[in-house]
Amino acid sequence: VYKQLALVWGVTPYYFSKISNNKEAYEYILKKLKSEQHIKKDDKIVLVTGTHPGRAGHTNSISVTRVGEES
User: Fold this and answer.
1) What is the distance between the alpha carbons of residues 43 and 17, in angstroms, rounded to a whole number?
2) Segments in the chain forming alpha helices (H)
3) Measuring CA to CA, how many Å separate 7 from each of 11, 22, 35, 54?
4) How far apart (Å, rounded) are the C-alpha atoms in residues 9 and 60?
5) Gap between the Cα atoms of 60 and 50, Å rounded
6) What radius of gyration do the chain's Cα atoms show?
7) What pTM value is reported for the model?
8) What 3-state class would DSSP assign to 69?
9) pLDDT band at 69 (very low <50, low <70, confident <90, very high)
10) Residues 6+ apart with CB under 8 A from 10
């Protein structure tokens, strides 16, 4: 799936270790992408999350946010 996303959707997927909750995952990946200068303030990003992080078939939330406006 990781490589298919890049080919089909034109996105750059990032793999990171399993994290127990969506808030923790979101904070971790934002910090990582900012530190590697892949994103900057005012960039738009798409967040895909689910009710049971790390379990297939539970993706039920997609949101678009602007970097710097996240809560």
Assistant:
1) 24
2) 2-9, 22-35
3) 8, 25, 25, 23
4) 19
5) 5
6) 12
7) 0.63
8) coil
9) confident
10) none
- Torsion, CA 51, CA 53, CA 56, CA 60, rounded to 10: 30
- Cβ atoms 30, 16 nearer than 8 A: no
At 15, list the tokens: 């793999």
Q: Which among 24, 31, 29 is positioned nearest to 12, based on CA atoms?
A: 29
Q: pLDDT tens across 12-55, in order?
A: 777 767 777 777 878 888 888 899 998 999 998 887 777 766 66
Token pair of 68, please? 């710097």
Residue 27: strand pairing partners? none
**Length of the chain counted residue by residue:** 71
